[in-house]
Amino acid sequence: MDETRLKRLRFRAWRRGFREADLILGPFADMHARLFTEDEAVAFEALLDAPDHDVYGWILGQAAPDAFETPLLMRLRAFQKGGGARIRQD
User: Where do the domains of the chain lie?
Assistant: First the structure.
C-alpha cells in the first residue's frame, strides 16, 4: 500500500468523531494497515465510510449487512475482544 493511502486510512481511523470507535479502529489501523491486501484496504475504507455507531455495534458483535461481514471485520472483532484496542501511545 502506498504511504499516502496508509496515512489517510490511519488518520480517518483515529478521527471518526465517535471516541469509542476511534479507540478500536485507530490502534487496529496502526498495527495492521501497513500489511493490508488490496481487498482488506477496500473493506476498511468501506467501514470508515459507514456510520460510526453502526460500525461500533458491528465490531462489538451485532450482525452487519452482508457487504460488511468480511474477514477484516472478523479480525477487528478479534482485535477488540483480545484487548488490542488501547489508547494511542504516539
Answer: 3-81
